[in-house]
Amino acid sequence: MKKSLLVILLTVFNISIVISQGKTISGKLVDQLSRQKIEFASISLWKKDSTVWKGTLSDTLGNFEFRDVPNNLSFIKFQALSYKTRTISLQEFQASKSHEISLEAENQTLNEIIVKGEKAVASLQIDKQTFQTKQFQNAANGTGMDLMQRLPAVTINTEGEISLRGSSGFILLVDGKPSTRTPADILAQLPANIIESIEIITSPSAKYDADGKAGMINIITKKNTRIGTAWSGNIMNGGTLPLRFGSDLQWTFTDKKWSVFAAADYRRYDIDGYRVGEIRTKYQDTLTYMPSVGVRNYMDFQYSIRAGGSFQASSKDIWNWSAYMGEKQTDRTANLHYQDFINANPSRELFSAFNTNQVPYRQFYNQNLFVRSGKFQTYNIDYTRTYANQGKLSLLGLYEYSKLGGPLNNYDTYEGNNKLLLWERSTETSPLNAWRFQVDYSLPLRANNKLEFGYHFRHLNHQGDFLFERFAEGTSSWVSDPNYTDKMELVQRIHAPYIQLNGSNKQFSYALGLRSEWMDRTLTHAGEPGKTYALNQVYLFPSLQGIWKLDGEKTLRIGYSRRIERPTSKLMSPFKNHRHAETVETGDPNLLPEIANVVEVGLSKGFENFSFTATAYVNFLHDKVFRVNEIYSRTILGRTYTNAGNSQSTGIEFLTEYRPAKIWKVYLSGNLYQFDVQGNFRGIETQQSSFNYNLNGNTSLDISPKLRFAWDFTYLSKSVTTQGHDSDLLLSNVSLKYTLWENRANLNLQCLNVFNSNIQTIVTQTPTFFSSTDYRKWDRVIQLSFGFRINDRGQKTKSTKTEYGEKEF
């Protein structure tokens, strides 16, 4: 199978070389001093009567190209932000051997230009929407999480779970490089100050990994492109009770051919919280009602060190490399007071009233400390070669090592006398090794068409050593429990060839592709010696994208893609895990991947001071993984994961930007969708549906040329889950930002969660049990920050994060 696909790709490659001959005008734009590429510059060809024949933009490597050029043209003009416009006669350009055009930087800095005008918050492209992060002032000095929750179709609940169009299954890229760490943990380790823009790719093309049932999100980080040395940094303080502070620093050195950078950041951000809950069960002949209340606090710290660089060996050869090392730890403390009421009357209903004035069957105090830690390392190198026919060869190699784990301590005592009821502890050590190699080739064809094809390989080895012990009070010793103690190993290999055809004309661009992924997965564990859970399957992923430039500044976009969501090690662990007093969790080693088919149609319209974008979509999900809860004992729920049905999301997302005055800007976005889920688990039918929506608003007002006020809000509606629902959630923030030293520094005063409304209720129920938990986070905080830039233009830089570790974190 793999050999046949390789032969097909090589045959197409040879045929394409033959048909790609044609008359063109092409070249490359570079900075006059640094010789660095200039991307997204405007290049136009002019007729002898001084009218424009055609224009284009340089790509991310500074390359540009015109095809089918007539003979009546006179000169070519080059224009780029922060550079002087250059005009060259066509005769002079064609006489040049290298066709490498250098532009001279203007004396005025980018900072001065920013004062005069700003980019739109969002732009619609053939396969994505791009959002400029500097428009979200209230997210400054936070993390990538703070930026994400301000985007349309992205929601984050009070427990930090991120969803795109109502689904938590999406892949996060950092500067185009994929990562299978959970998006929440990657974003939590990315300072918002280093993010230039965010791309939401809900209908990815075949050249991307097929992972992510809801699509992909690409984080573009900043870099400096000016010759010499540049520094940028930020420092933030948000109080000492609880402790909140952070800082980040980046250094960049750029020469004519070399560019290197180093960066570091540290963040400590503790949050106090509170939890109110209740459990009702009907187990055998006993009805149980168990309310609980207590503190639920978080201690969170993280740091990372990043370094990398690029080397332009020639005008056609570029090398890039980067390294990332980081650590993240979250300590969740839940100290809860429980009351246990029982009634041995099987005729009573689940919601029968209990006399809470009577003495409970028992009262106990549960002290639960769950520590989740991770140490991450990622190293990658890539090489790009551009040929004379503007064909492009790209090679990438990436290695990741992560060490995941953390102890759990569960300590129960009777209320009143502090007598020991139960004491459990567990430790986890989970090293993870992963490799990625990919080769991609892009070949220009006639009539503005381009053929892309390549091969991607991924390898994952994830091991886990889990020890669970109980304290035996009689012998004052710890005893291992074999039901919760185990060792496991997951090995997964993915081979993925793809081919894609792109084309464009004045009004229309398209991309048509096909990707094949062969997955070989094995899981073994000590609890079943000699037993191997294996899955070996081939999947096909077609994709189609198109975009039309219509009259009246209108843009129409269509897209279709088939996606896959592969289960993590946690969901497949075939042994019991007891993380807190109310739940015992077991995975399923036979879980199948979820398969999604996504169709969308988008329309964008621009006016003088107003713009509007709307995208309608449908996401059909097959073999959905259900998180199923059952009664494990009288006071404990058993949780497992299984492929038990399908779901469908049908909705529309919108984005508007309005400027009532030069100094005032208003931004509003949202997502409205109908969510339907159907399933069958052990003969029990499940069917849930709800109409859900989320809204994001942002307004900024320039009080003076140096002082800006910003206010934003995020609202999540009530939403159904497989066996219950999540309540609504409202968050709002305000800030004042004052710029100093000709916009090279700033002071930012922020008030986060101004209404102290970070409260959400999670409900789960069946005919035999009911669970309701009210999570409250007291994270209303006033924080002050200072940021600076020295010789920094704030452009994007190539960086990397982990490929697998964060997803398992």
Automatic annotation (TrEMBL):
Which Gene Ontology cellular-component terms appear in the entry?
cell outer membrane
Gene3D superfamilies per record = TonB-dependent receptor, beta-barrel domain (2.40.170.20), TonB-dependent receptor, plug domain (2.170.130.10)
* InterPro entries, A to Z: Beta-barrel_TonB_sf, CarboxyPept-like_regulatory, OMP_b-brl_3, Plug_dom, Plug_dom_sf
Q: Which UniProt keywords apply?
A: Cell outer membrane, Membrane
Q: Where is the TonB-dependent receptor plug domain?
A: 128-215
What are the residue boundaries of the Outer membrane protein beta-barrel domain, all occurrences included?
390-786
UniProt keyword annotation of Protein biosynthesis present: no
Cellular compartment(s)? Cell outer membrane
Major location category of this protein? membrane
* Keyword Manganese applies: no
How is this protein named in the record?
TonB-dependent receptor
| Originating organism | Aquirufa nivalisilvae
